[in-house]
Amino acid sequence: MFIPTARYMLALKLKALRVSDFAKGAKDVDDVRNLLGVLGIVEIDPAIEILAEFFRAAARMRTSSVLC
Predict the structure, then answer these.
(1) Cα(26)–Cα(56) distance, rounded to whole angstroms?
(2) Over the chain, what HEC string results?
(3) What is Dmax (Cα atoms) for the chain?
(4) What are the extents of the domains in the chain?
(5) Is 1 exposed, middle or buried (0-12, 13-18, 19+ CB in 10 A)?
(6) Which of 29, 48, 38, 30 is nearest to 6 (CA)?
(7) pLDDT at residue 8 in the model
(8) pLDDT number for residue 57
(9) What is the pLDDT of residues 17-63, one digit of tens each?
(10) Distance separating alpha carbons of residues 39 and 66, to the nearest angstrom
(11) C-alpha distances out from residue 35 to 50, 64, 67, 68, Å
(12) pTM of the entire structure?
């Protein structure tokens, strides 16, 4: 049995937000907010680093969209 870590769940939720309709992704936004709190993350860079651990290409896209 595989029980995902909070880090892995955060990466999945961040990746899902990249492709979801914002109105339909409201639950994902709440989940991300809660996972950030659990992990003690208050800045964007650590969140992007976690995304990159599991989904390198998505993290590169996320970084470029944040910088624009």
Answers:
(1) 24
(2) CCCCCHHHHHHHHHHHHHHCCCCCCHHHHHHHHHHHHHHCCCCHHHHHHHHHHHCHHHHHHHHHHHHC
(3) 41
(4) 6-67
(5) exposed
(6) 38
(7) 96
(8) 76
(9) 876 666 667 788 899 999 999 999 999 999 999 999 998 876 666 54
(10) 21
(11) 12, 23, 23, 25
(12) 0.77
d(CA 39, CA 55): 18
Question: Is residue 5 classed exposed, middle or buried when 0-12, 13-18 and 19+ CB atoms within 10 A define those classes?
Answer: exposed
pLDDT at 1 over 50: yes
pLDDT band at 16 (very low <50, low <70, confident <90, very high): confident
